[in-house]
Design a protein that fits this description.
mainly beta; about 130 residues; Thiol Ester Dehydrase, Chain A; about 45% strand
């Protein structure tokens, strides 16, 4: 799977939980955004988040760390796009994976019903 950098941010004190590390819900929100960025690179269609699966929080994220959200297309189905998201932080001179998740997006028509995925170009399916 080829990875794409979808988002890179620095998280702030307002994003912390009571333990002083970044609240998991903040990470989940950015995972959803990163997945949507990747899906939007594949198709111009409207799509919705269907599922966020197998989210694994491996290490805490600390205030001030640079957090990168890398995405890769795992599967393109008839109406759905499954995207893997790796979340990494820069610690010292290396990036450390702190979270990973798989997300499924469903393409929808103007009435909100599932519709076939139409890639911007066939090359986008090879990402």
């Amino acid at each position: 799977m080829d990875r794409n950098l979808a988002i890179r941010i620095v998280l702030l004190p307002r994003d912390t939980n009571r333990e002083g590390t970044i609240f998991g819900g903040i990470i989940l929100s950015h995972i959803d955004l990163a997945g949507a960025v990747q899906a939007g690179m594949l198709t111009n269609q409207r799509f919705l988040t269907k599922a966020m699966k197998e989210v694994v929080f491996k290490e805490p994220v600390r205030v001030g760390e640079v957090v990168s959200f890398y995405t890769a297309i795992k599967r393109v189905g008839n109406t759905s796009i499954t995207i893997h998201v790796d979340v990494e932080v820069i610690r010292g001179d290396q990036e450390v994976q702190v979270t990973e998740a798989d997300m499924t997006f469903v393409c929808i028509d103007e009435k909100g019903r599932p519709t076939a995925v139409v890639p911007k170009s066939p090359a986008n399916l090879k990402q």
